[in-house]
Amino acid sequence: MRDSATPWSPLRNPMFRALWIAGVFSNIGSWIHITATAWLMTSLAPSAVMVSLVQTASSLPIFLLALPAGALADVLDRRRLILVTQTCMLLAAAALGVLTILGLTTPWTLLALTLVLGAAAATNMPAWQAIIPELVSRAEIPSAVALNS
Q1: pLDDT digits (tens, 9 = 90+) for 59-81
Q2: 7-13 contact pairs (CB < 8 A, 24+)
Q3: Domain ranges within the chain, ordered by starting residue
């Protein structure tokens, strides 16, 4: 097997490594958010419908925005799109954190901010996946895609 085609070889590329590490932390944050928002909703509105709306607000944007976001990733600068969507996710998560700490979170603000996070994540995903071939050599693309998933 050629050295450039090893499963871990894309991580030798500093740009891919930075993107991969950012992806790990972003995914950890997303899973914490999904768990915490459902838990928080049980405190704010202990209704099964409201708790299920948290998951809907998180997932529905992926269903609705996947194709348009893919088209955006094809026509816009992918790096800039990733930076904008990640910044949007950071701001929405920070706003939710501040509102929760201050005791100002309502079920509807929780759902709205979760919807914003879901929309930003849905817009981010196609650009994130499409930028990989720009960062690694052709021989490393299969390994980079595997690491990214």
Answers
A1: 999 999 999 999 999 999 999 99
A2: 7/143, 7/146, 7/147, 8/143, 8/147, 9/140, 9/143, 10/135, 10/136, 10/140, 10/143, 10/144, 10/147, 11/147, 13/135, 13/136, 13/140
A3: 31-38+47-148
